[in-house]
Design a protein that fits this description.
4-stranded antiparallel β-sheet; alpha+beta; 28 strands; 628 residues; cytoplasm
């Protein structure tokens, strides 16, 4: 019986030894013991299970086994003294009431505790001594009782406390973020509320201005009505005057014919005298207007006969030399980009659509949406000649290589040729279904090419006065067209975002260039012809190698659209007219972009003088501005 009572004492000693050594190694052992109070252990009776009926003699556990490898006498004595001291402390302070069993095993609890505290040497000592007792059969786990759950509860509470602190920190961060979002939302609300009030004020102001304009316009209506009546009266007077003039011209023509016959010495017989008055009476009954129509029909018939006998022109078979190459070799001065506004010429009542320089003289021609083209002398800007004949706005114009003729394209779907010495129209080409955007002369002077909104381009024969070929391939409006200098090659730019190279002799598309993301508004060759420049509706300029038909560089000066591009005579500076009124100058050698600010509204066209000293630009305000 004494042996059986000693077994629990041995297990408790081992447990308390491990607990005591672990608590000694901890940093706050004294504080934890004071806070937690005494340990409560349950006293149990350990019975040894045996398979046979042999009665073993129980030996009292009076001696403490010394672990292997530590048989030093001094260490053993010290260990025994510590063991006795711990036993006295436990006997004095420990009370063993009954408690609920703890599911955790003593061995696992002790091992986990020692591992958590980092007490590896104590863990090794405990395991060696513990398993030695188990091998000897001196103890079993199920007979040793339960471990106090204070440590387990403390660890659970500590973990729960840590988790709650983390949750608290997370909730604080979320609350701070929500507070910031609330402040931001309040500021945005105040801003939008203020903006709404300002919009309402502007709306009320615009409504008041609109009412004032309506009243102002109503005051002009009587005056406009009177002016319309006067206009109709003047038109009637003009018509009567025209009829009287035609009658007088007919009488003068008859008198001149009579005088001519009298000078030649014709003798009129009596029978003839009877016939002539009859003819004159018929002409008198016919009237000057009918007579003019009859003469126009006869003239048209004679012109038709002449056209039928006229043969088609032949395209040049040999490549003609480019005269701009000589100019490029001679021009070795640095490129000029520092232009300043010099003068303003007010030439049109509506926007200027095109400006071209005469190939030999210091004059330019401007075309406008007021259906007029004007020859302007430089540098004074005096109008030398005004041409009219189109029934809708003019879109483009181009000089004959000799400079004595002009081709114009218009929104009335026609292309007209003009004699600059007289200022009258000598030929009209009709065939496009919609507005014509651009026109260009062949270097031989026998062909004119045009591009239209109807997605086609046409090549016109000046001598036979007919369309020689229609170019099909673009799927949207063809906005620009230009002949390659001295060749039969055509370049077109379209709203389908592509450039196309054509053979004018066959009408076939030789190559298409892709790269623009928006409608191509204009495309042109350099004076040397080795490079192409194009601009689109988003302000992007692209340079292409014409020999390889590959893109070189892309420059974005948008978002305002680029309306027209042109090179100077040296081919080293490229100018672009933009929709925001800015003229962009690109130095191809340095890559720098310079801006010319002077237009009050949209800039439609830009062109250099032959020597590069002047730059001319036309805008939507009907003015041509000179830069030097």
């Amino acid at each position: 019986m004494a042996a059986k009572q000693g077994m629990p004492t041995l297990a408790l000693r081992v447990l308390e030894e491990a607990l005591g050594m672990g608590l000694t190694a901890a940093r706050d052992t004294a504080e934890a013991v004071a806070a937690e109070g005494a340990y409560y252990l349950e006293q149990v009776t350990i019975t040894e299970a045996s398979e046979d009926d042999y009665e073993y003699e129980e030996i009292p556990d009076d001696n403490f086994s010394i672990p292997e490898g530590e048989e030093d006498l001094a260490k053993a004595i010290q260990m025994v003294q510590e063991q006795a001291t711990d036993t006295q402390i436990l006997e004095q302070k420990t009370v063993l009431p009954s408690k609920q069993p703890v599911p955790e095993v003593i061995e696992d609890f002790l091992c986990n505790f020692l591992i958590k505290m980092g007490m590896t040497r104590t863990l090794d000592c405990f395991q060696s001594e513990w398993y030695e007792l188990i091998q000897k059969g001196l103890t079993e786990l199920r007979d040793l009782g339960n471990v106090p759950d204070v440590y387990t509860q403390n660890m659970l509470l500590e973990n729960e406390n840590k988790n709650l602190k983390k949750d608290l920190k997370h909730y604080k961060q979320a609350a701070d973020k929500a507070r910031e979002d609330l402040l931001k939302t309040q500021k945005e609300r105040d801003f939008h509320r203020m903006h709404h009030k300002r919009i309402v004020q502007e709306k009320n102001k615009l409504i008041n201005d609109l009412k004032g304009l309506k009243l102002h316009y109503a005051s002009y209506e009587p005056t406009i009505r009177v002016l319309h009546e006067k206009h109709h009266t003047l038109l009637k007077q003009k018509m009567l005057t025209s009829l009287e003039r035609d009658r007088a011209v007919g009488q003068i023509s008859g008198l001149q014919a009579t005088l001519k016959n009298m000078e030649i010495g014709h003798n009129y017989h009596a029978s003839e005298i009877r016939v002539v008055p009859t003819r004159e009476k018929e002409n008198a009954l016919e009237g000057p207007t009918q007579k003019g129509l009859r003469e126009a029909r006869e003239k048209n018939k004679s012109n038709t006969k002449i056209k039928d006998n006229t043969k088609d022109s032949e395209f040049p078979t040999d490549m003609q030399p480019n005269p701009n190459l000589c100019l490029y070799k001679e021009n070795i001065c640095p490129a000029k980009v520092d232009y300043k506004l010099n003068n303003i010429f007010r030439l049109h009542e509506l926007p200027v659509s095109c400006i071209v320089m005469h190939p030999c003289k210091d004059i330019l021609i401007s075309c406008g949406e007021d259906r007029l083209w004007k020859v302007v002398g430089l540098p004074k800007g005096n109008v030398l000649l005004t041409g009219f004949g189109h029934t809708d706005w003019l879109s483009d114009c181009c000089f004959h290589p000799s400079g004595n003729k002009l081709a114009t394209s218009s929104g009335d779907t026609t292309v007209k040729l003009w004699d600059l010495s007289k200022g009258n129209c000598i030929l009209t080409f009709e065939g496009h279904n919609h507005a014509v955007w651009s026109c260009t002369w062949h270097s031989c002077g026998d062909f004119v090419a045009s591009s239209s909104l109807d997605t086609t381009s046409k090549i016109w024969d000046v001598n036979s006065e007919r369309c020689r070929c229609t170019l099909y391939g673009h799927v949207d409006s063809v906005n620009s067209i230009e002949f390659f200098p001295g060749s039969n090659t055509l370049l077109t730019g379209s709203a389908d975002k592509t450039l196309s190279v054509w053979d004018a002799r066959t009408g076939n598309c030789e190559q298409s260039l892709y790269g623009h993301m928006h409608s191509v508004n204009d495309a042109t060759f350099t004076p040397r012809g080795h490079m192409i420049a194009s601009c689109d509706a988003c302000g992007v300029i692209k340079l292409w190698d014409f020999r390889k038909l590959l893109p070189i560089v892309s420059i974005d000066v948008g978002p305002s659209p680029g309306n027209e591009v042109n090179f100077d005579s040296s081919g080293r500076v490229l100018a672009q007219a933009s929709g925001n009124g800015v003229i962009h100058l690109l130095d191809l050698k340095s890559g720098q972009i310079h801006k010319l600010m002077g237009h009050e509204s949209e800039a439609h066209t830009v062109v250099f003088s032959h020597d590069g000293e002047y730059l001319f630009s036309g805008g939507s305000d009907g003015t041509v501005r000179t830069w030097s």
